[in-house]
Amino acid sequence: MSAPESSLPVAGTVVVLRAADPGFELLLMRRPDRGSFAGAWVFPGGKVESGDVRDGDEEVEDARRAAIRETREEVGLAVADLVPLSQWQPPLEAPTRIRTWFFLAEAPDEEPSPSADEVAEIAWVRPAEALARHAAGEWTLYPPTWITLHQLSVFDDVAAAVAANGVAQLFRTRVLDSDAGRAFAWDQGRLEAGALPWRYIET
Model-level pTM? Predict the structure, then answer.
C-alpha cells in the first residue's frame, strides 16, 4: 500500500530565467547517466534536508530553502526571490515518490558553474526550443519538466512569466495506459506520451 501524500519526502526545484533577444531563456541541466533521472534534462533542485527545515514554517518554505541550496550546489548560482509555480504529486506507480515544488527565479549576474558529480551538461534554451529537441528525440524530458516548458512557452519575457505566477498550481499525477500508449493526466489536462511528439490536451 502506498504512503499517503502528506508523508512523502519533499523537494524543491528552480526554473532559472534570463532575458534573451527575443524573449527569454531558462537553464536546463542534463543528469549523468546514473542515479535519479539518469540522462534526462531537468531543472536544478533536490530533496529537502534537515538543515532546510524550520519549526513552524510551511512546507513550501522548506522546499524553497532546499531549491536555493540545491541550485547553488548543482550549478553554482545564488538565486533569490523565488516565485512559486507548481506542486507535483507523483503517481502511485512511481518507484520513488517525492512531492516537488517548482519555483521561478531570475538569473543572477554570475555564470553557472556546474558540479561535475551531479551535472553532465547545461544549456540556456527557450522553452519552445527545449520542447522541439524533445520532440525530435534528442532530449529526454519527464512530464513535469515538459509541462513546465509548455506553460512558460506562452510568455514573451521574464517579467511576464514571473508576474503571471505566484500561486502554485497543484498537479496530482495519474498514469493512463491504453492501446495508444502511455498518458499522464491531471485536473488541468492530459499529456499523450505514447509517441513523439508528445501532445498536451487541456481539460
Answer: 0.94
The C-alpha atoms of residue 58 and residue 182 are separated, in whole angstroms, by: 35
**Beta partners for 114?**
none
User: What whole-number distance in Å separates Cα of residue 108 and Cα of residue 165?
Assistant: 19
**Is 188 within the bounds of a domain?**
no
Give the residue carrying C-alpha cell 528552480: 14
The domain spanning residue 55 has which CATH number? 3.90.79.10
Residue 14 belongs to domain spanning: 5-174
Cα separation values, 150 from 65, 146, 155, 179, Å? 26, 6, 10, 25
Asked if residue 146 is part of any domain, the answer here is yes
Domain count, the chain: 1
Q: Given the C-alpha cell 524543491, which residue does it identify?
A: 12
Residue 78 lies in a domain: yes
In angstroms, what CA-CA distances link 82 with 12, 14, 107, 138? Answer: 11, 8, 11, 30
Q: What is the DSSP letter of 179?
A: T
Angle CA(57)–CA(63)–CA(68) in degrees, nearest 5? 115
Q: Tell me: the pLDDT tens digits for 121-158?
A: 999 999 999 999 999 999 999 999 999 999 999 999 99
